[in-house]
Amino acid sequence: MTRLTTEWIKNMKNELPEWGRGLEEMTHMSPLNLAAVGGDVSRGRINSASWRIKVAVVPVTQGEGIIDTFCEQVAAIVAYMGFEVFVTEQTDVWGIYEATQKGAGIIFLADDMYFLALNMSKNVVVENSDATARGFVAALEGAAGGLRDRAVLVLGGGRVGKAALSFLRCRGAEGVVFDTDPEVLKDRAAEGWRTIKTKEEIKEFDLIVDCTPEGNWLTPDMLHPDTLFASPGVPLSLTPEAEKMLEGRIIHDLLQLGVITMLVMAC
Ligand code: PYL
Question: What's the 113 CA to ligand 1 centre distance in angstroms?
Fold first, then answer.
């Protein structure tokens, strides 16, 4: 998983309205509806939760420590979805205690390995990789006008890729996976997923979910000209030329779709 930097995310909260409009233009669905599809949660449940549940975001100092403004951006995304939210003054365990004392029903917190949304009263734990994969598959489905009986190539067969494959199956699509690590491909094949073995085969697919943590390796000649490209992976794999070729058909953000899907799944 690529560790975000303050430089990458510091303007995110100011750009949320533009992000939401762009996503709706591409997917013909509001962020709320996308999260509802990705999280498999009814709009009614989300609306009622937004009135009842207060959300806390707890800074975590473990490992490489706090990413300046990370918690603030997460809180801004939660607020954008219409929920009351605060960032705790304290960090770590004290911050969790502060959140419970201030009546939080859902707590977001992230260390270097996991980013979780916890709903203690419902004993629900939502993990960012799973929610992010589901959110981006839902967005691809919206942009493609449905995925039923269509082949979708998943780049990267790790934590996010596996979640994307599973949710693609839930949505009636055939997930196909590519990974540069033969051992990962072997594991996915053993689980019954169709795999491709070479980068040359990527251009056979016009629907792609890119879950790789590599950047700048997908060139125009490697891609189907009509590709719809959903990329939970950070940084973006597309070279600038490929980005230009796919302009208007790229679904990519650093936190937003994952956080809104985590939120609704924790409701
Ligand atoms: C959750 C993000 C999505 C992509 N990469 C993941 C990442 O950067 N994880 C590290 C998050 C550390 C947060 C830090 C803080 O500010 O509380 N512990």
Answer: 8
